[in-house]
Design brief:
alpha+beta; 7-stranded antiparallel beta sheet
């Protein structure tokens, strides 16, 4: 893999996620597009394979982060149990996204004023964090007030 350029293209970040369930998901994301205050795109490899797209916009004093994650699991056991454990995986994912939204707001030193998590493949499932994941045309979004 070539080294990252001055704009961060081809830089790689490793992520390890764990929700309430006793397993971790590890993956690397290689940046394929970075446009300051507009968009970031990357390709994921590892336990997850696919791509992620982050778009940034403003609504008054709010910054809106629109995030699409198009990945599939590479872990054999997750794929094996997914048909019967899908609702549990969805709740776990929703909890991880709530953690991520709070961590991002804290890093930006801004309050998290709202968050939506949508799984377009799933029936409505009540998330432990108090949100409802429902099929809808819009993917996950987070809003944080700018400092």
């Amino acid at each position: 893999m070539p080294p990252a350029n001055a704009n961060g293209i081809d830089s790689v970040r490793r992520y390890v996620w764990q929700g309430r369930l006793p397993y971790r998901v590890r993956f690397d994301v290689r940046a394929t597009r970075i446009e300051h205050n507009v968009a970031i795109e990357g390709v994921a490899t590892g336990d997850l394979d696919g791509s992620g797209h982050w778009r940034f916009s403003s609504r008054g004093k709010l910054t809106v982060v629109h995030y699409e994650w198009h990945v599939h699991s590479k872990r054999w056991w997750m794929n094996l149990v997914a048909p019967v454990a899908r609702a549990i995986f969805i709740r776990n994912h929703a909890q991880i996204m709530v953690q991520g939204g709070k961590a991002l707001a804290k890093r930006l030193k801004a309050p998290l004023v709202g968050q939506e998590n949508t799984d377009l493949m799933a029936p409505a499932v009540k998330a432990r964090a108090g949100r409802v994941a429902t099929p809808a045309p819009a993917p996950a979004r987070s809003g944080a007030e700018r400092p």
